[in-house]
Amino acid sequence: MLGELSPVALVLIDARRRILEANPAAESLLKMSRRALAGRPLSEVIYHDSPLFELIDRAQRQAGDIMAPGTPISGPGMHSRIICDIRVRSADRGAFVLALAETPSRESSDSVAGAAGFGRILGHEVKNPLAGIIGAAQLLERQGQADQSELLDIIKDEARRIERLVNRLSAFELFSAPRLQPFNIHALLDKIIAAERAANGPKVTFQRVFDPSLPDVVGDSDHLQQAFHNIMRNAVEAAVENGGTGNVTIRTAYAAGLAMKQARLGAGLRRAMLITIEDDGKGIPRERQATIFDVFQSSKSGARGLGLSIVSEVVTAHGGQIRVDSEPGSTRFTVLLPLGDGTEHG
């Protein structure tokens, strides 16, 4: 039996996505009895355009729980769309347990539903101009000069990355639900450095101090590229804040002996990859350092204070940690990303 007294709706589905079992909370949420639910395809109970089905697809492709807060679901038995925090967990023989906790606040539910709709509109409206940008870059690549190829590669790579992020946003996928794959952290950082060099020219000197023996990190490369680009963009802006020139140093290293206990990637991880991004700007006032990762906290003119809150969300979702150390002439952001037990250094 699935948690008879649980306030969370629990639904067990088989590999064909037919409902095997449901608890009383699921009966209440889906407005159907356990007997009526048994044996039904999930798509007959929850409309197939719900992001829930994408979460199940992802659970079939990767290990570990898949979580998505504030996800809309609706179905023929429901009077209106419901916003739920969802967890998908694999069970025996290709089955999955779906845990759905309804968001209690109607105000927040309406807000999240509106955000989902906005995400889909954004995806539709942004993808066409992105395709035009990629096409124009490809045309210039065929007609352009050899020394322009690096800049055109940056345009194409960044446009495709934005397209991927928009596709994921339009599917209402959040930074708190990364897609984990191994990738080379230095290749990712080099892409960001190249983009910032192209944008700022000789105003900023970038110094790379990379540990070449580091293994691949297991993470969501698009999400982490967004996070590190936000940090580096802030560093560049700080370094040239007064219209002069500045320096940004990017370091990677292996950090041992750290207790990093994050449920998503496993408890008791003791090894981590360390990435620091340091600038020689005027620094961050001490009173702001404690709240710098909070949403809507920014000292920039016209800024909305979202960049570093996204950084914090992405790093936390990867089981990592982030801190900032700042004084006049030196601001250093340090990110620790865990390395799993099966990953060997060297």
TrEMBL record:
CDD domains: HisKA, PAS
SUPFAM superfamilies recorded: ATPase domain of HSP90 chaperone/DNA topoisomerase II/histidine kinase, Homodimeric domain of signal transducing histidine kinase, PYP-like sensor domain (PAS domain)
Record-listed E.C. numbers: 2.7.13.3
PANTHER family linked to this entry: HYBRID SIGNAL TRANSDUCTION HISTIDINE KINASE C, TWO-COMPONENT HISTIDINE KINASE
Protein known as: histidine kinase
Keywords in alphabetical order: Phosphoprotein
Classification via InterPro entries: HATPase_C_sf, HATPase_dom, His_kinase_dom, HisK_dim/P_dom, HisK_dim/P_sf, PAS, PAS-like_dom_sf, PAS_fold
GO terms of molecular function: phosphorelay sensor kinase activity
GO biological process: regulation of DNA-templated transcription
Highest taxon of the lineage: Bacteria
Organism per entry: Hyphomonas chukchiensis
Record domain Histidine kinase: where: 121-341
Reaction catalyzed: ATP + protein L-histidine = ADP + protein N-phospho-L-histidine
